[in-house]
From TrEMBL:
Biological classification of the source: Bacteria, Bacillati, Bacillota, Clostridia, Eubacteriales
Reaction(s) catalysed by this chain's protein: N(6)-dimethylallyladenosine(37) in tRNA + (sulfur carrier)-SH + AH2 + 2 S-adenosyl-L-methionine = 2-methylsulfanyl-N(6)-dimethylallyladenosine(37) in tRNA + (sulfur carrier)-H + 5'-deoxyadenosine + L-methionine + A + S-adenosyl-L-homocysteine + 2 H(+)
Organism: Oscillibacter hominis
The protein's name: tRNA-2-methylthio-N(6)-dimethylallyladenosine synthase
GO MF: 4 iron, 4 sulfur cluster binding; metal ion binding; tRNA-2-methylthio-N(6)-dimethylallyladenosine(37) synthase activity
Cofactor note: Binds 2 [4Fe-4S] clusters. One cluster is coordinated with 3 cysteines and an exchangeable S-adenosyl-L-methionine.
Length: 449
């Protein structure tokens, strides 16, 4: 950036990302733009010329952490008045948050939402040249800007966004309000990005979207998500795995599962959030499928992909949910036999339909229901992991585990974590592992020839 050249120094930036993989992917593009502008990076806010918080609005806990971090930055700003502090991401897109930051966190210089991510260099230049605060949170359709630079983590894993926004308006979810309507990337651009990642040595590539199953509907080309998977599998050569998240059950189809089954590059892993096992609660959530439809989908997927690793998201304590309805969720967990769950006690998001619903159950009651859910899933996970002991599986060694007994970290085709005994030379490559032990959360094994 010419501004910093005039200052006679190389600036440093500290980028802190909260939330989902989509936020991680956005953060990597922000870092790419910063690097192109001449910034280097630090993990210490006190040492940074620019501090950027890339935020999540899905959970109340994440918002509290962001406000706490913003408050702490008053000290770094006081020590370095020229420091620029930025707030971006889903949380920043909410008018109520922007108002609070404008009034109560006056040391924050730049606020912009996901729609304006591609304009970040322009907005930052305004901060530096106008010497004033800049807010860009307009509710606009959103623009897909191809070709933005990316700074990715070194290793074997990479994220590729294929669709932005969401059209579903689940009653508990803030995402459609902060990320806008669904906008699919051009298939050729996605193929080019995946091809480039494989050439660079990435071997575990995850396709991202709030609902990947909606991919292509807005393009008018006739290509859907299953077709995109088939094209990547057939046209991108190399030894790699493709994963994806998240899928919405209302849009998941036998065609998708058949495509997964016949494409060797597509991992035998499916993250299919069901949220509740009770039909009344599902209707109140505006999920637009039933318990019966969900079971039909997962049973079909398991039939065409034996050994499929199945994970899901679950909310306990949705407004108005009774104990009996919460136990319907527990019974569905037992019936399906998920490999793992991402579990949450309902957290109200201002501006969503569910936030205005009566919610008579106490937090203590919800915690009891939640604990029953965890007990059920932990029992299932431990049993399924124990069944692996004595078997031999192919794994991708992705790094060090931090445990001297099992120094390597790896993942199976289905995404199961395997702590591995073997040479560090295996990091970054596929290997064969003999599973020797297991617990509720992971497998343990040794690399074999």
């Amino acid at each position: 950036m010419a501004y910093w050249q005039d200052q006679g120094k190389a600036p440093t930036a500290c980028v802190d990302t909260f939330g989902c993989q989509q936020n991680v992917a956005d953060g990597q593009r922000i870092m790419g733009m910063l690097q192109t502008m001449g910034f280097t990076f630090t993990d210490e806010p006190a040492q940074a010329d620019l501090v950027l918080l890339n935020t999540c609005a899905v959970r109340e806990h994440a918002e509290k952490r962001v406000y706490g971090n913003l408050g702490a930055l008053t000290h770094t700003k006081k020590a370095n008045p020229a420091q620029v502090i930025c707030l971006c991401g889903c949380m920043a897109q909410q008018p109520s948050v922007a108002k609070k930051v404008r009034e109560s966190y006056r040391h924050v210089d730049l606020v912009f939402g996901p729609h304006a991510l591609w304009r970040f260099p322009e907005l930052l230049y305004q901060v530096y040249t106008r010497r004033g605060r800049v807010f860009s949170i307009d509710d606009e359709p959103g623009t897909i800007a191809e070709g933005l630079p990316v700074v990715r983590d070194k290793g074997v894993k990479a994220w590729v966004s294929i669709i932005y926004g969401c059209n579903n308006f689940c009653s508990y979810c803030i995402v459609p309000y902060v990320r806008g309507r669904e906008r699919s990337r051009d298939a050729e651009c996605i193929l080019e990005e995946v091809r480039g990642l494989v050439a660079e040595g990435y071997k575990d590539i995850t396709l991202l979207g709030q609902n990947v199953n909606s991919y292509g509907r807005d393009l008018g080309t006739g290509m859907d998500f299953a077709d995109l998977l088939a094209r990547i599998d057939g046209e991108v050569e190399g030894d790699y795995l493709i994963r994806f998240m998240s899928s919405h059950p209302k849009d998941a189809t036998p065609k998708l599962f058949d495509t997964m089954a016949r494409c060797p590059h597509v991992a035998r892993q499916l993250h299919l959030p069901f949220q509740s096992g009770n039909n009344r609660v599902l209707e109140a959530m505006n999920r637009r499928y039933t318990r019966e439809k969900y079971l039909e989908l997962v049973n079909y997927a398991k039939d065409v992909m034996p050994g499929l690793v199945l994970t899901s998201d679950v909310i306990i304590g949705f407004p108005g949910e009774t104990e009996a309805e919460a136990m319907d969720t527990v019974s569905l967990v037992r019936e399906v036999g998920f490999d793992a769950l991402f579990t949450f006690i309902y957290s109200p998001r201002p501006g969503t339909a569910a936030a205005a619903m009566p919610d008579p159950a106490t937090r203590a009651e919800k915690q009891v229901w939640f604990d029953r859910l965890l007990d059920a899933q932990n029992e299932i996970s431990a049993r399924q992991h124990a069944a692996y002991v004595g078997s031999t599986v192919r794994v991708l060694v992705d790094g060090e585990s931090g445990d001297e007994r099992w120094p390597l970290s790896s993942r199976t085709n289905g995404g199961r974590l395997v702590h591995l005994l073997g040479s560090r030379d295996l990091i970054g490559s596929f290997a064969t592992a003999r599973i020797t032990d297991a617990n509720t959360w992971a497998l343990f094994g040794e690399a074999v020839e």
